[in-house]
Amino acid sequence: AEREALAEDTHSFLETLLVELEGGDAVGMRLAQYEASQTTHDLQILVEAMREQRDPRLGEYLILLWRRRRQVMDAQYACEVLTSTGNELRAEAFLDELGEEARADPLLRVHLAWARFRQGRLDEAETELDALEASGADNANMRQLRLMLAVETGRWAELEPFVQLQLAARANRTASELIGAAQIARAIGSSVTFDLLRAAVANAPDD
Fold it and tell me: What is the pLDDT of residue 207?
């Protein structure tokens, strides 16, 4: 029985590959296969096909995959896809579904912090961000949110320490991050504006 199932999987794979090579609707075939079988295996294959084709339904099927497997990487990818394709409201609903699980993973918690910011729940966004920073997490999305919170709440005094920190950490910042920091520094009249610009030039990839 196991050998028969393997042979069936191989046949299905080759059949779908042939459709792809002929320019056919491979996602449609894999979707039909999943709807018929309702197996996690076929759902995984469908998700991969949707990823390759940049199918707009990918986020929803990643949520389905998370519900089946309860693997954090599926939840992370679902949030990433939904927010990057303009489906922030769906991402926020999914984060609510995740509940405390969203706070147990740093990447998901960053998504949660941004969701609260978009919803105008600034105190909650800051609480999530504070907890992330206290755990030692640090990435560009967190730094951007910290900046946006300072601007949105009118805490202009926090911007000078922010640009100073970006300059101090210039070895771990991209050129675009440093240019952004330089623009902020210029807007607030900081003395580190040109230092940030020079650091951005130094960090820019060679053309």
Answer: 47
